[in-house]
Amino acid sequence: MPSKSINEIEFRSLTLSEAKVLAEKSGKMIFIDCYTVWCGPCKWMAAISFQNEEVAALYNSNFINMKVEMEKDADGKELAMKYEVRAYPTLLIIDSKGNLIRKEIGAKDANAMITFAKAALAK
Q1: Which of 23, 31, 106, 118 is most buried when burial is the number of CB atoms within 10 A of its CB?
Q2: Section 17-39 average pLDDT
Q3: What's 23's domain CATH number?
């Protein structure tokens, strides 16, 4: 099991297919952080927004969380085409069938991350 502290989003090392199966079984949606290693705003979010206690609690309780390095991970190309990911970071929330629930482009602070999640959960 992941050894993340409660103060950060628990990102799981899963393929998109595995995440969909887990989402189906758990009744949760999937949060995907689409990033690249060279993306400055992506690094800022990883260091600040994803380590906010309130953000972590909300995302860890309600979503299957995964990060996809868009230029290296096998799922990157599929995600880029299906969800029109053309800038980084792009944040996606999808259901277990792969239907897009919410999409945001660009770095988000903790308040924006909370608003993003709550909007998806309200659907």
Answers
A1: 31
A2: 98
A3: 3.40.30.10
